[in-house]
Structure formats: C-alpha cells, structure tokens
C-alpha cells in the first residue's frame, strides 16, 4: 500500500493508545450549547477529567471545526501522505461529514498546487468513508482499515470499497445510563411518553443500532440492567460469526468501573472463546452527552442476517 494516513474525529471509540500507536490523526469535535462552544478531544487525560469532574450538558450541535480540519489536513497531512482515508460518523448525528466534504471540494485544486510547490509530485488521493455509526461503533471500521493496511498491500480505493461493504455488517448495542434525556433526539427519537413509561415500569432499553435505523433490541430490568445487557450480548454472539475478531466495548466512565460490572467477566470470556478480542475504551464525550454517564456500548461486525432477537 502507498503511504496512507487515517483520519477520524474524536467520537471514534478506539482507545487513545491504539490511535497513537497506529499514528491515526484525531480531529477534535466542536460541541455547542447555550453557554457557548468548546472543543473536545480523545486524550485519556481529558476523558478522565470529564468523567470524574464534569457533568454532561445538552448539545445543540456536534461537528468538527472547519478551520481545524483545514489546518490539520490541508496544511499538514497533504505533505505527509500520498493517500488519506477519512472515516466520519453518520451525518444524521454530526455535521462532520458535511464539513469534510465541503472543505475538500473547496481545496481540491489547491492541494495539488501546494504539493508541487513542496516538490511532491506523486498522485494524491482522499477517500471519505461514512461509517454509518452514530454515537459509538465506528472504531470497528477503523480497526478493519488498519488491519487491511497491515496485512495486505491495497490502495486507498480498495480499502474504501471494502469498508463500504464491511460497515453494513456492524452491529452496535447500547445500554444508556440511568439518566438519558437526549434519547428524544435524533437518531433515537424516543418520545417523552415512551421515556416516562420506561421510568414507571422500571425497565431500561437496550438500543440496537444498524444502518438507517435505531430500534429497541430488548427491555431489561433497571436493577439488573448490566447483567441482563451482557446476557443479551452473550446470546447475540452465540448465534453469529464475527467477520473480524474485534469486539469493541466503550463505557461512559472509568475502565476500572467497567470491569466490575455484573456480567462483564462472562461476556469477556465468551468473546475469547469465540476467537475474538475485546477492545476497551472510554466512551467519547459526544456519546456520553446523549447516552448519559454509565452507558455501555458494544459493537462488532458479523455475517449478514445472523443477529437474533
């Protein structure tokens, strides 16, 4: 493969250490609410501070900063790589994809001129992949792209073509935190009445996200929600075949808290028994704003039409 760089936004839910090891460029995400605008990143220090000190707030808008994208990609990465693969969250959740495409269109001709001025004459390509994942799960697509780069000498076009097929087989199951008022917003769109009924019934939804829609995969008892959630995932894995070995789990809190959740150990063992690798990460702030602290999300890619209810 040619000199290929990978770019994601801070909502990508692979561990920060893995992103650093593979030299993946992470674009900060700009979030805004009634108090103003702030940039959030994916550093361990920032996430740890967020989960121990800060409270999630209502986000009116989520997306990368256009100026930051230009500074990082058009003013820096075009000189370091011949090809760039940019993986972005679904546009129903974030403005990032729109900003990326708009900026690349504007700078398309200028990029070639800038590289030639720097005496770089090799062909340059940028390929943008919409992950079709919203709050969590798009780390699975990035992991697959990194695997291809490591195992096979493929072009950026071949990687994009593979990912466009691969992403349709990613399944994401989210267990919101106890407080999840943002589920009334897209892409979930649970009504206020539905949330009220859940609270009264003592039930908690496990949200199943797949391309184009979000549904409730199962209702679990709120008191035993972690045990029932991992039990549900155990059932899903037992009736499917992983198409790559990664199972990505992200938690809206410290990873030490994740590991002591009821049912976690059994689920971890099931992943290993099926030849998989459980990759842990702290959930991005943008996901926690919507799902609430204490939320858990698990994503994996499997053969089509094998997920059951």
From TrEMBL:
Xref: Pfam families: DegV
InterPro entries, per the entry: DegV
Protein name: DegV family protein
Species this protein is from: Reinekea marina
